[in-house]
Model the fold of this input.
Amino acid sequence: MTTISNSKEAMVQARTRMEKAVEDFRKELASVRTGRANVTLLDHVRVDYHGTSMPVNQLGSLSGPEPMSIVISPWDPAAVPLIDKAIRTSDLGLNPTNDGKVVRVPIPPLTEDRRKDIVKHLHKVLENHRTAVRNIRRDIKEAVDKLEKEKKISQDEQKRTLDELEKLTHSETKKIEELSAVKEKELLEVK
Done:
């Protein structure tokens, strides 16, 4: 953590770090499988291509032509079996097929039990990110208190900064909770 020399720097750092936590949560949600095809589902799948581990989206174009399937059109036809194998061995539980030119990934509907398991996982991820935001608040509060103790800022400025920090914390936590609620609704929706 960089040193903070005034209350303005403290708030800039708090805002930046909390926004990163929200963005990280957004990325984490994108990789959570729902019953609908979404190309971001394959973002974490890596393919061993010519001795280099590469993400699938760098080996071809991904599209979701139908709500229940993803189609990968590799730029190099030799990558088709490698992509197929990488998706099969991933922890996504998907079973792709290929015709030598493209890889088709059907997205099976989720069972009720699987939906509930995913929601439980979603709640754990949500709590981890809430905790991250609270930890950022704690770090910045300690830095502001230290500034006041060292007489670098006044008590009034300390109080104003801590009030602003509290509002920012509530705002960022609310964003995370809203994102989670939307994803949970999408997960529990049966098509």
Q: What stands out?
A: Strands lie at 46-49, 52-55, 60-66, 69-74, 97-98, 103-106. The domain at 7-31+111-188 is CATH 1.10.132.20 (Topoisomerase I; Chain A, domain 4). The chain has two domains: 7-31+111-188, 39-106. The chain is about 55% helix and 15% strand.
